[in-house]
Amino acid sequence: MEEVAFAHMADGTKEEYEFLTPLFEEHAKGHLVDNLKMMLGLLAGPKLGYRIDRYQHSLQSATRALRNEESTELVVAALLHDVADSFAPENHSDAAAALLAPYVSEETTWIVKHHGLFQGYYYFHHLGGDRNARDQYQESPHYDACVHFCAEYDANCFDPGYDTLPIEAFDEMMREVFARPSRIPGVAPAPV
Q1: pTM (2 decimals)?
Q2: Cα radius of gyration rounded to whole Å, the chain
Q3: How far from 40 is each of 20, 35, 44, 55, CA to CA, in Å?
Q4: Looking at CB atoms within 10 Å, which of 80, 128, 148, 153 has the fewest?
């Protein structure tokens, strides 16, 4: 079989979906890291008033996590925590967490999902908001880890003088994390 016969997914047969699934999986796994690096590249460019752009911020965040000997998945999470800024500005934390969720621990997913709110500790009060809004999650077992992440790998990662590693320094770590089997139960690979 070179291609399926159906034009509407409801008309597909078991054999056609068994044919499609490995093609998709091989393609998706083979290109995922490069696609994520391309998405990170969308953050390069305008500094939007900061001293560095969001791409350099992401690299600096990952570099600091690596140099602090954090786990591979936390280094990758630091690299990708803002990857969704360019296409999901209103919920970038949720979108980045969704990208990572199949491959990283519940704690790492939680950190990325909540980092936007937790980061507000540093500036919400300057804009009339509640800098302690993060405290609604005080009972979470991941609260302290998220506070730590924001303090060590987000709020302080806008330094133009910091010796930041290039994206290539994180290739193997990204490949390791995204080669993991999905930890989301009951989710079949997408055939499209």
Answers
A1: 0.92
A2: 19
A3: 29, 9, 8, 6
A4: 128
